[in-house]
Amino acid sequence: MPLSQPEREAFLTQPHIGALAVARANPGRAPLVVPIWYCYEPGREVWIMTGRDSVKAKAITAAGRVSLLVERIEPTVRYVSVEGAVVSAEPSTAGELWELSSRYLPTEKVPEYVKAAENYGPQVTIRFRTEHWLSADLGEV
Question: Which one of 57, 112, 122, 141 is separated from 29 by 20 to 30 angstroms, measured CA to CA?
Answer without folding.
Answer: 122
